[in-house]
Amino acid sequence: MRTRKREFLDEMNLVVPWAALVSLISPHAPAPGAKGGRPLFAVKTMLRIHFVQQWFNLSDPAMEEALYDMALFREFAGLDTGEHNLPDESTILRFRHLLEAHNLSLQILATVNATLADKGLLLKGGTMVDDTLIAAPSSTKNSSGERDPEMHRTKKGNQWHFGMKAHIVVSMRIRD
Hints:
The protein contains seven helices and three strands.
């Protein structure tokens, strides 16, 4: 049975210009270390994981867990069907930081838009949302001696936090 997730990923596999994006990112990717260590994952694999993470709104720990749990995501990323040697959350985080450090997100969007325009489609705008947790001690009180109503418990990944959320929203419009 073909699920909606599989249909979506199959469609994205055809629409996203993977080779162009890999060639855009590859010059900035780290080279294997002289000391050996854990082998690096291919840029194409990490890029596909990054896209899945964005499409399905997964945190780094949730993306790592999804790679273990979902053969569909491993298959899309081009990883072994087994559960050996999968990227962990810190590897996923480092890849995102690589994209941010070299301002590659806008170039990725421009490359995808150019491909879509060639097919008669155009992405007019997008929104990126980042939730940041601002931690506070669980005994935080306001000026009247009561617990601050702005502070709440929330779960991120598998860990509970107390404090407030700061939502950072960036919107972008691309006009022709």
